[in-house]
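task queued by scheduler; priority normal; single chain, no ligands, no partner chains; default sampling; output format set to structure tokens
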Amino acid sequence: MQKRFAHENFPPEIQAKADRMNLEESQVPAYTLPAILPAGVQNGIDFQTRARPFLLGLLEKYLYGVVPPHCQEFRCELTAEQRDAFAGLATRREFTLHCRQNGLHRALNLLVYLPNQVSRPAAVFLGLNFAGNAACSTDPDVIYQKPDFYPSLGTIRYADSRATEAQRGTQASRWEFEQVLKRGYAAATMCYYDVYPDRPDGFENSIMRLFYQPQEWSSPERNSGAISAWAWGISRAIDCLQTQPEIDSRRIIVHGHSRLGKTALWAGANDQRIALTVSNCSGTCGAKLAKRIYGENYEWILAWNPHWLRGDFSRWSGRENEIPVDQHQLLALVAPRLLYIASASEDVYADPKGEFLAAQAASEAYALFGSAGLEAAEQPAPGQLSCGDIGYYLRRGEHAVTPENWQALLEYCDRKLG
């Protein structure tokens, strides 16, 4: 019997939802995945012109809603630069991204490291972070952007976990900036709270306020969600990175862990400037198949995170077998660009097997471009890297991103993007 979610502060109705999640492989029902390819799609040109719009439309309609358009005014302001960060290893630049729409303004704070010891423009790792830019780096001179912290809303789920000034560097192991820079890559990050605070009441302090009226956003017909907002923020960060001559805009790598892994996948599906999309332990509405009915399910997502997805997604709670989409279609939208799925052996709620099977099913789209997609016929053992155009890595352990994850990912990038 697998260990289940349990917490002393869970009310009985929440614990009941946790208990209803299936964690037994023998109880996975038979399921049929919806088709990736519309009838008559036979090659890569067909995929780009017909299958891509079809799949994007389905995923917008049933899960994520639309990613907003580019804002009317966008400006990338350099706010700080240090040319000898990490004892001369890198140049650190910090930017304020000014986004204006309909007379409203939202500022996003982007941290960028550029490797000093390279002879050509560098590939760049870009990811949203959970706790603020200063929490991601051991570099003591990163600007600490003091946030307005939010109350907990009475639940452990909505405790604001962004770092204080005294908590600088507390999530640095998730980013491994120095190791990335030593391998010749650039790195960039931005806090996801800048884009959309991860709360049901986050709308007023989000970029979505630029595009929606409050009554539109609170409507059950809301046609977008926080994941689409975060994907929009990733695209604005790419806009800025493309202005930096030290960065190779043909080798942009977008990565994310957990809910930000879901976001990385949706960004990779929408923004074709992304050369490599990386999902780490993204689970439900990320890389794992929903129809497998194993681990975290729609009911659990909706219990805590109704703001992540479109307003009418709640109609699919407990109906994964009926919704006409699944996550292999999301992964297929990255084709023919590179895709990398990382799982953890004990992260049962994210269903490592379901993530692998989704990647395997997505390979049908890659075949249209002459690629095998996922090269592994069976789920690799922990520690074994599969290096196809769909890469896969299973780490032994629980839900996390670790230095081991970075070593495997850097090896993959050296092989595929070096």
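post-processing summary
- The longest strand covers residues 73-84.
- The radius of gyration is 20 Å.
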